[in-house]
């Protein structure tokens, strides 16, 4: 075991990026304009006819109202708007160029068909909402939200999956209390998106068990390494591996012990500056080498006000339009906040501004220990 010393931050390697936002066509509620457009069109046709000194040949616009209603309304509202379109078309006061029976039957048929389509769409939307709710519950069970505090450590995590519409991907984090102290993990499994969820669930399950019965972070790393090795043993040509950083806080939160498996250690925020701790990464998890080559453990003494910031390669390897890596260590002091959750959100906002096309899983874990006073 050795003490850590701060050194200038290293830059990451190349990576892919994506901004995960759910729009109208991905399941979000219809926008306001889509809801009001049919009514606005109907009112516009009526108003134009009433104020025009001569009849206008714009009755064809009424035929567009029921299909537009299908986009944002249910069958009842679609039927109401369709009926109003037929009424406006036939009421003499609007002088819609005396439509013939063919025009009227066409609008009636379009309205009836629109009601049917709206009914089918509403049923499918309800089914998709149910399926999405079930999927969200399942994904939250794999990676539940972090509590605001675990013992003397305040914590906050931020996760943005690379695959649109998912809450879990190839990155993971967790903070747990156990008989040997407060332990935290943040890692990245091979691949991303839904294909990596099974590996994430397996690793988090192994971590939560190891927190309870493994005496030190090296043993926790060995447990995770063995879990991945076992999972990939039955699959020919499987190359299942993961990188991770493990942290163990003492009971008084005055010392943290760090093990890095295949990735760099956390950034230490202290006195308005950000330092990358000198943690030498050992081999990634899943290669079966943790017991042969024990990981190097680094011990860091903490002060009041210190915060540890961990970020995945989706943050450190993001690039701007000119191909320059996101300078996390340089920007982090200017984004600092007493609230760990607010700090993570500020970094995410700044990252998206710097690199709008973020395509990799983005994960951040902020740990703010409050050392207890003592000798």
Condensed summary:
The protein is of the alpha+beta class and 375 residues long.
What is the correct CATH architecture of the largest domain? 4-Layer Sandwich
Rounded to an integer, what's the Rg over CA atoms? 29 Å
What string, H for helix and E for strand, traces the elements in order?
EEHHHHEEEEHHEEEEEEHHHE
Oligomer: single chain
| Average pLDDT score | 83
Q: How many angstroms separate the termini?
A: 22 Å
CATH class annotation of the largest domain = Alpha Beta
pLDDT < 50 stretches: 1-21
Largest sheet: 7 strands, antiparallel
Region (Disordered): 1-22
Protein name: PPM-type phosphatase domain-containing protein
InterPro entries: Bact_Sigma-Reg, PPM-type-like_dom_sf, PPM-type_phosphatase-like_dom
Organism: Streptomyces caelestis
Write the layout of secondary structure elements.
Elements: E1 2-3, E2 6-7, H1 32-51, H2 65-70, H3 75-90, H4 101-142, E3 149-150, E4 153-160, E5 171-178, E6 181-189, H5 197-213, H6 217-233, E7 242-249, E8 255-261, E9 267-270, E10 273-277, E11 297-301, E12 307-311, H7 313-316, H8 328-331, H9 340-354, E13 362-369
Parallel strand pairs: 1-11
Antiparallel strand pairs: 2-10, 3-4, 4-13, 5-6, 6-7, 7-8, 8-11, 9-10, 9-12, 12-13
Helix pairs in contact: 1-3, 3-4, 5-6
